[in-house]
Amino acid sequence: xxxxxxxxxxxxxxxxxxxxxxxxxxxxxxxxxxxxxxxxxxxxxxxxxxxxxxxxxxxxxxxxxxxxxxxxxxxxxxxxxxxxxxxxxxxxxxxxxxxx
Length: 100
Known about the structure:
The protein is mostly helical. Helix content is 85%, strand content 0%. It is built from three helices and no strands.
């Protein structure tokens, strides 16, 4: 007893997978950022407390984490909508060209 999957079901499931994957990927990036930068702060304060350099990688990598959040979590639905619209347009174009 098999049930047919509609295109809308597929699109909804695909969106959910992409959103979940984006959040999981961002969380892994954030955890790594916190752990590594904590270690860098400790190393800096232990071995060269007179020259504070830890904030350079903190800020640089922080920009990367922020960008990952924006594109992988915050704006992911708009990005997926745009990709779906492009795919639909391309599919219609291919179908139109096949009829000609």
